[in-house]
Specification:
Layout (H helix, E strand, L loop, with lengths): L2 H4 L7 H20 L2 E6 L5 E5 L24 E2 L7 H8 L4 E9 L5 E12 L5 E10 L1 H22 L3 H16 L3 E8 L4 E9 L3 H10 L3 E2 L4 H9 L3 E3 L11 H6 L5 E8 L2 E9 L8 H31 L5 H4 L3 E5 L5 E2 L31 H12 L4 E9 L5 E12 L5 E10 L1 H22 L3 H16 L1
Antiparallel strand pairs: 1-2, 1-6, 3-4, 4-5, 5-6, 7-8, 7-12, 8-9, 10-11, 11-12, 13-14, 13-17, 15-16, 16-17
Helix pairs in contact: 4-5, 4-9, 12-13
Length: 475
């Protein structure tokens, strides 16, 4: 009998086949339900497999990636100066990588941010076979971070500026540079005349756009007149992808000659009232960005409160007949707390550090740090304000600093909410008022002494009264 006919190929045990099938099913379920997708590459770093339920995010399917490199399709690394060389060097060295972030255009012309991790694959003879790994779309997270940073940047501009005009111009510039707008304007409400008037502006270096802004200075808008007038009247933001095609656009020819098309308008609010309108223009047609629209509502409120406060302070300074520069009134430091009211460190430069002992500058609630004022009732009232998530102004407290000196502070703050309305904590500004408090105390002592001397019927009584006043005042 032919031995070859009797020889049979060994069969794999059924339990091994079943186990492999189960593991493959688990893998497919994980990939389909996960926010990440799985990929494989050959020895030359070309994709050979891309699979996962979210791989088509942005309108690009997996078949478009097979046979391409990671750096194809206009992809650019985030970091490393936008160069792929460091990543390519890591691949050549067969090194694993984690959370490598790059951005690439999607099917609609927008940008998607991708985070990917991978490891080299070797066969049983230690020969390099390629890479495999996972990736995920982090665009939403990235945009949320950028918008939050924008809110902080605007807040910092307002806190650090030495005049109202400079603050508005700096805030406009921050929005333009962060979000890619070519120019921005602030139009203020002239209540007496009942019109919007040019306030401040900023633009990229471009003679045509600068001419556009210059000619805008003389323009005025009534309620409901033009796009800015509509926003003033409605109190709602407005996004126009192409102003040259919108029948409501005034001065269409001037905008077109300046090379400006896309625009967004949003109200500057104070206590629910529109006191101005901010408008930003782009050189390209630009579709609405819902996240940015949410952010501008916060920014409009920030700027509105700042403008109203500055105008109110200016009125007080004028009525008192005293001149103060905005530098004197600007905050000495910026602070933030989390949702539990604990102080957290910030990355912003500050002219002076808060008057809190070095070991107590973060991670504690304000009332957990030793203080000399206010009293328990004062702290209770302040805590009630915070628990109600209400803004506050000019809350005064005093602490003993590292040198044993009593220092007085005045702080103001506002609650912070995310896009869903969830309370995230507080942020605000503060300034030292130690010298002012000392002057007030000295003045009160002087008045008390004068009253004692005036009411005394003898020199001895006057001296005793003077000594008593000093002792009681100074402890």
């Amino acid at each position: 009998m032919d031995a070859r006919k009797n020889s049979k190929k060994p069969k794999r045990p059924r339990d091994v086949d079943e186990a492999q099938r189960e593991w493959e099913e688990r893998f497919q379920t994980l990939i389909e339900l996960s926010s990440e997708w799985y990929w494989e590459q050959d020895q030359n770093s070309r994709f050979t497999l891309v699979t996962g339920s979210t791989v088509g995010h942005g309108g690009i399917g997996p078949e478009k990636f097979v046979g391409t490199f990671r750096w194809d399709r206009g992809a650019v690394p985030v970091g490393d100066g936008g160069s792929w060389d460091p990543h390519k060097a890591a691949l050549e060295a067969r090194q694993p990588f984690t959370d490598f972030i790059f951005k690439r255009p999607d099917s609609k012309g927008g940008l998607r941010y991708i985070s990917t991790s991978g490891e080299p694959v070797f066969d049983d003879k230690a020969r390099f076979r390629g890479y495999r790994g996972i990736a995920k779309d982090i665009t939403e997270t990235r945009r949320a971070q950028e918008l939050l940073a924008l809110e902080h940047a605007v807040n910092r501009c307002l806190a650090e500026a030495d005049s109202l005009g400079a603050a508005l111009k700096a805030a406009i510039r921050a929005v333009c540079e962060t979000e890619g707008w070519a120019c921005g304007r602030y139009l203020r409400v002239d209540e007496k005349a009942g019109v919007l008037r040019f306030g401040e502006a900023w633009s990229v270096p471009d003679a045509r756009i600068e001419r556009y802004l210059e000619e805008s200075r003389a323009a005025v808008y009534g309620p409901g007149v033009g796009l800015v007038g509509l926003v003033w009247q409605s109190g709602q933001p407005l996004w126009v992808p192409d102003t040259s095609k919108d029948t409501r656009t005034m001065r269409k020819n001037l905008a077109r000659e300046s090379g400006l098309y896309g625009a967004v308008f949003f109200p500057v609010l104070s206590e629910g009232k529109t006191i101005g309108v901010l408008t930003f223009n782009s050189r390209e047609v630009r579709e609405p960005d819902e996240r940015l629209l949410q952010a501008v509502r916060v920014i409009g409120s920030q700027i509105g409160q700042f403008v109203q406060r500055m105008q109110a302070e200016e009125g007080v300074r004028e009525s008192e007949g005293r001149f103060r520069s905005l530098t004197d009134l600007s905050s000495d430091f910026y602070w933030e707390t989390d949702a539990e009211h604990r102080l957290v460190p910030t990355r912003y430069d500050r002219k002076r550090q808060p008057v809190i002992p070095r070991g107590d500058r973060s991670g504690k609630r304000r009332w957990e740090v030793p203080s000399t004022r206010p009293d328990d009732a004062g702290w209770a009232a302040h805590r009630a304000t915070l628990e109600a998530h209400l803004p506050f102004r000019d809350f005064e407290l005093a602490r003993i600093d590292d040198n044993g000196v009593e220092r007085h502070l005045s702080i103001s703050g506002e609650p912070v909410f995310d896009a869903a309305g969830v309370f995230k904590g507080y942020r605000g500004v503060g300034k030292e008022i130690t010298e002012r408090k000392r002057a007030e105390k000295l003045q009160a002592l002087e008045h008390a002494v004068n009253r004692s001397l005036a009411g005394a019927d003898s020199v001895t009584a006057a001296v005793r009264a003077w000594i008593r006043v000093v002792c009681e005042t100074e402890g």
